[in-house]
Amino acid sequence: MNSLPKNIPDCVFFFLAKAHQKAHGLLKKKLVPYGLTNMQHLILEGLWYHEGATAAELGKLLILDKATLSGIIDRLDDAGWIKKRLDKNDKRVFRLYTSDKANEIEDELIGVRKKGNDLLLTDFSLEEKILFKRLLRSLFLED
Known about the structure:
Elements: H1 12-31, H2 38-49, H3 55-62, H4 66-78, E1 82-86, E2 94-98, H5 100-104, H6 106-120, H7 126-141
Antiparallel strand pairs: 1-2
Helix pairs in contact: 1-6
């Protein structure tokens, strides 16, 4: 591991920001061949596990606000990655489904994310990986 310059403060916010940049950049590179952003991939994966969710349900699941989610859903729909269908019982609500285009490479895209996770944590022992994920999860679940 690289050592930090002496003038870098021991600051959790700084370390989290840098870790986010590294993780985001790593996955971003892996998704370039598919023409997807990290957030688009996150939404696709959310829909693979919760097919037919509404935008509100998906936002709650992924902890994303409506404004952020709305534009990404529209871009995924325009690019043919997802389909919007009116809810059978409430015509004011759209349900979201992954398209054949997305479903054909579902396993491949989930594999890209998993390989990215493995690459990011390659220097961690199994115990460190488990603890790291538990600590990260606890940071956003405590609200």
